[in-house]
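Report of the visiting student (M.T.), summer placement. My assignment was to run the structure pipeline on a short list of targets and document each run. The first record concerns SUN-domain-containing protein.
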Amino acid sequence: MLFTQIATLSLAVLTAAVPVEKRSNTCKFPTDQGLIAVTPSKSNGGWAMSPDQECTAGSYCPYACPAGQLMAQWDPSATGYSYPSSMNGGIKCEADGTLTKPMSDNDYCQDGEGTLKAKNTADKEVAFCQTVLPGNEAMLIPTKVKASTENDLAVPGPNYYAGTAAHYYVNSPGYSTKEACVWGDSSEPKGNWAPYVAGANMDDSGNTFVKIGWNPKYVEDFNNKTPSFGIRITCEDESKCNGLKCEIDPSNFNQISGSGSNSLGASYCVVTVQDKANAKIEVFSA
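After the run finished, the structure tokens were exported:
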């Protein structure tokens, strides 16, 4: 009898000492807000997060907006670009599995400044993949530019999150956004290994700064492999643009035509587009 009581007591103590793990609630991606679903068949369920990452209770869950627009929700206490607050983009997932706008007066998405387009003169579609910021900064937000067409690229203004710019990975013609707007690996020149990168933002004076450059990861892992395409910055009114000519001729590996600079071992150039004038990042076949 005593042995049985001791055994029962020991089991009770052991049970009490081992916490029972409770499964967190998750929040479903809203399909009625005009958002762009990212890998909806994966665990992320459409959120602009890594494919194996769920939108769980207590977290901020970022999302992709249509071309030319920017995510307009993030942690309002994240006023500077610093980790870990820079990860807190999107809608707040509450403990009961409901979604809350952290900035209730904002819509889900907001228009960019409207001063930049992607122009594709190649014969196949091109994927411009924008990084998620605030968020994990993976290149998950898709903008498809069909052959011989143009599409808007989102340009943040000076009041956007922490004054940051929009960053894009420019993939080779022929890769779809579904194929290219993922992290990828060094086995193929796409995603984080796309040949080129680009960026844009506007300051208080109405100047848009447009940057194109070689992707440092491509330069590192695909050394001297010539891409099948080049990119350049063009302006409708060249008198409004400082820094032209700004072009990448792929036959000159890791070189820029015009006045360029270097960062992380990769060459780039920047054009300043004044007075809210318009510019384009043009993709052309080599």
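The helical segments are 2-17, 177-180, 216-221. The chain is about 10% helix and 30% strand. I thank the supervising group for their guidance throughout the placement.
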